[in-house]
Design a protein that fits this description.
This protein is mostly helical. The chain has one domain: Up-down Bundle (Four Helix Bundle (Hemerythrin (Met), subunit A)). It has seven helices and two strands; from the N terminus they run αββαααααα. α3 (71-94) packs antiparallel against α4 (100-122), α4 (100-122) packs parallel to α6 and α5 (131-148) runs antiparallel to α6. The longest helix has 26 residues, at 40-65. The protein is globular and about 55 Å long. It is found in: Membrane. Its EC number is 2.7.8.5. This is CDP-diacylglycerol--glycerol-3-phosphate 3-phosphatidyltransferase. GO terms for molecular function: CDP-diacylglycerol-glycerol-3-phosphate 3-phosphatidyltransferase activity.
Length: 192
């Protein structure tokens, strides 16, 4: 197993650790920053998420730079991304930080696209992420990170930056999903 695939596996193994800090009631103090109180366990979980999200860039960098792209990596990397994003969004819904309908739109698109990719892969076709899809991912990750960190430092000035980023992510999710289905409609017609 090459280094990028090991990094991707590390991302998957960080997900349960992230969830433990999000939901297990640890006897840790809260941290107060400028009037915003963050449970220390949540802060640790948010840092774990940040590290895990960073591994997505890292594994891709090594895979491209050292020509270590594998079919296993092409399968595992998007799966790891979806697992991490799903865990974070479900945590935010559980805390009543984000509305469930926004998360349902995002996750529905993710699983639908994964399904199409699997059908295409069965026919020997690899469907790469589009630029719109990459922007969607960037805004999803930014929204999650800001929301996990309780909207700090923007909470001090009263700007709901986390929710603004999430709205942009939802809009990009819808647009990139439509674009993805239109550009890959041949997968449906060929497979029927």
């Amino acid at each position: 197993m090459n280094l990028p695939n090991k990094i991707t596996l590390a991302r998957i193994f960080l997900i349960p650790l992230f969830m433990i800090f999000m939901f297990v009631p640890f006897p840790l103090d809260d941290l107060s920053v400028g009037g915003v109180t963050i449970p220390l366990a949540h802060l640790i979980g948010a840092i774990i998420f940040l590290i895990a999200a960073g591994t997505d860039w890292l594994d891709g960098y090594y895979a491209r730079k050292y020509h270590l792209v594998t079919n296993f990596g092409k399968f595992l990397d998007p799966l790891a991304d979806k697992l991490l994003v799903t865990a974070a969004f479900l945590s935010l819904v559980e805390w009543n930080v984000v509305p469930a309908w926004m998360v349902i739109i995002i996750l529905s698109r993710e699983f639908a696209v994964t399904g199409i990719r699997l059908v295409a892969a069965a026919d020997g076709e690899v469907i790469a992420a589009s630029p719109l899809g990459k922007w969607k991912t960037i805004f999803q990750m930014l929204a999650i990170i800001v929301l996990l960190f309780y909207n700090i430092p923007f909470a001090f000035i009263g700007w709901p930056i986390g929710m603004i980023l999430l709205w942009i992510a939802v809009i990009l999710t819808i647009i990139s999903g439509i674009d993805y289905f239109i550009k890959n409609k041949h997968v449906f017609t060929h497979s029927m």
